[in-house]
Structures are given as C-alpha cells and as structure tokens.
Amino acid sequence: MIKDKDFEIRHQDTVCVNESELSHRWYHHLKYLIVGVLFGIVFVKAEVVSWFRIQEMFRLQSFHMYGIIGSAILVGAVSVWMIKKFNIKTIYGESISISPKKFNKGQIFGGLIFGFGWAITGACPGPLFAQIGTGALVIIVTLLSAIAGTWVYGYFREKLPH
To answer: Taking Cα atoms as reference points, which of 65, 70, 43 lies closest to residue 55?
Structure first.
C-alpha cells in the first residue's frame, strides 16, 4: 500500500517518477529533433498519417493500420519485459522504474473520447506533426484541440474518475 498520496498520483505519470536528474547543454536535445524527423518520415512512408488509411481501419476495410499498431504493441511489450527482466538502465546509467497500473473506468471513457476524436479527425497525437509537415495545415486545428483537451484534463484531473 502506498502511503504517500502525492506519489500515488505522480506514479501515473511516468515522467514524474523517472525524470532525469542530469542536466545537458542545449545541443544534446538535437538528437530528439533528428529522431522525430526520421520518425515522421517513417510515418509518412508507411502511410500512418494517411487520413484514408485511418478511415479504412475504423471501417474495418484494411489490416494495414492494425498490423502497424499490433507490431508497436508487441515491440512495446517485449521492451517493457526486457527492462524489468534484465533491470536495464538508461543510456546514462539511471534506473528505470515501471510502477504497476490499476485499471479504472476513467480509462474506458478516455479511450472512447480518444477513439472518437481519432476517427473524426483522422489523426492521433503521434502523427499530428508529420501530417502538418506534409502540408495538411488543417491538422493545426486538431493539434490545438489536442492541446486544449490535455489542458482541460489537467485542470479537472482531481475531479475525474481514476
């Protein structure tokens, strides 16, 4: 049983528990920009950012997106298993703490809202920037809506079912 209520809430946000204590110069962050650009290129080439592919998925007309999502889940599950099994540390030697998560009804509501938004807009948070980068500037509305939704969640978090 966790006695520290603050930790109990913070452990739901991985970054609050695993935040690095290290301080780097600004140019160390360029690696994230490079990986993000490469990731965006992969998203575009794999058609993950395609509104038509996303609509095919929600209409159960194509396996394309399910295959990509399924392989991402498999890679994530194997990665988490390996981190726990072999006590893998960050590249800088820091420990990685993965707290057990409790299932609650708020996840169902959040998942439904997320799924409806994804189906309506044809965009989930991952590929938003890649879509904007391809010239689909209307996705800026979706990006601003995602930011507003995140802010609303943060504002009402204490009152929501967890």
So the answer is: 65
Interatomic CA distance for residues 81 and 98, integer angstroms: 10
Q: Where is 28: in which H helix or E strand? A: none
* Calpha distance 61→71 (Å, rounded): 19
Q: Which amino acid is at 109?
A: F
Angle at CA 16, nearest 5°, toward 110 and 99?
70
Q: Taking the CA of residue 54 as centre, how many other CA atoms within 13 Å lie in the half-sphere pointing to its CB?
A: 20
Distance, CA of 38 to CA of 133 (rounded, Å): 12
Q: In the chain, where are the structural domains located?
A: 5-159
Residue whose token pair is 């609650």: 104
What are the DSSP calls for 33-58, one per residue? HHHHHHHHHHHHHTTTT-HHHHHHHH
Structure tokens given for 157: 């978090």
The Cα 114–Cα 146 span in angstroms is: 10
The whole model's pTM is what? Answer: 0.70
pLDDT digits (tens, 9 = 90+) for 38-73: 998 998 999 988 888 988 998 999 999 999 999 999
Rounded-to-integer distance, Cα 138 and Cα 8, Å: 39
